[in-house]
Design the sequence.
């Protein structure tokens, strides 16, 4: 019984991890869309920060990438 529960947990984790990886590009796109026509200091910094988030995503560091992107969106005032 314990092995079945452990196996279920591993399978569930394995299925959810790839789904979370798709959040990063969506957030990066959202930041790029918001900053496309903005030329203020916050947008300028966001363009730098979004490059960092995209690199983290490319390196497979999805948790860090998502965190960086969400922080950038907060700085831009996007909820």
Sequence:
């Amino acid at each position: 019984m314990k092995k079945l529960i452990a196996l279920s947990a591993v399978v569930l984790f394995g299925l959810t991890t790839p789904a979370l990886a798709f959040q990063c590009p969506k957030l990066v796109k959202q930041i790029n869309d918001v900053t496309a026509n903005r030329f203020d200091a916050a947008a300028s910094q966001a363009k730098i920060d979004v490059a960092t988030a995209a690199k983290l995503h490319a390196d497979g560091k999805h948790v860090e990438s998502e965190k960086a992107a969400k922080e950038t969106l907060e700085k831009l005032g996007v909820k």
User: Anything to note?
Assistant: The two ends are 43 Å apart (CA to CA). The mean pLDDT is 84.
